[in-house]
Amino acid sequence: MFQGIFSISCFQYCSGYRAKTAEYPGISRRCLQYRIKEYHISSQCHYDES
Question: 45: Cβ–Cβ under 8 A, 6 or more apart, which residues?
Answer without folding.
Answer: 10, 14
